[in-house]
Every structure is written in structure tokens, then in C-alpha cells.
Specification:
Elements lengths: L9 E4 L1 H10 L3 H9 L8 H13 L3 E7 L2 E7 L22 E3 L2 E3 L9 E5 L5
Parallel strand pairs: 1-6
Antiparallel strand pairs: 2-3, 3-6, 4-5
Amino acid sequence: MMAGAFQLGRVVATPAAIEQAEETGADLLQLLGRHVGGDWGDLSAEDKRANQAALLDGSRILSAYITQGRKLWIITEAATDACPACHGYGGSCQPELGEWHEGIHFRTDRLLQRLSTTILRPEDY
């Protein structure tokens, strides 16, 4: 699987990250493009290898970008079979499909999906 071959899901940003982007001139759409394109930014080699593995195993993907000495993170959550519609991410829920565990609907009839990506400052984590 090549870089960029993952879903962002619903994209959100913390208010503090938006404020920081405005203050530093960081272009959040450009950073999202870098993230989904496999340019993980200012990460260690080990973290970049973990992201490459995440493209295959569905685990969390992290990017870090520094603008004017201030860091923003972009985190795409791990792939899950939780129902996207039940989590507010488009589509319609078909409660008869999949399985329910402790009030959470899992769509075991579908491929795993990434439900969300968050833009935040490290201190927001």
C-alpha cells in the first residue's frame, strides 16, 4: 500500500490549533494534504516507520509540522469496524447488519474504516 492510501474520516481541529494556525500562517488544508500524501513532517525515523506500518495494519497515523517554531499534530485514528453512521460520519446506520457490543454498533460486514482525523497542538492531546 502506498502513502496516501488511507481515509481521513471526519476532520476536526481544536480551537487552539486553529488559533495557532492563524497566528503562524500555517495552511491547515496544505498540512492535511501532506499528511494524507505520506509526508509525515517533523517526526523521528522510528515514528515515520510506524506510520508506514499503519498503512498496512490500520493503526493510528501521526504527523507533526512546525511553523514559526510552533508544532501542530495531525492524528488519524486507527481503523475500526465501528459503524460510521453511529459516529456521525456519513451514511445510514443499518442496525440489523453487524454486531452490537455494550451499546456500540460494529459493522463486521464492511472493511475497516478510519472515522476521524484531528488537528491539534501537542499540549491539547
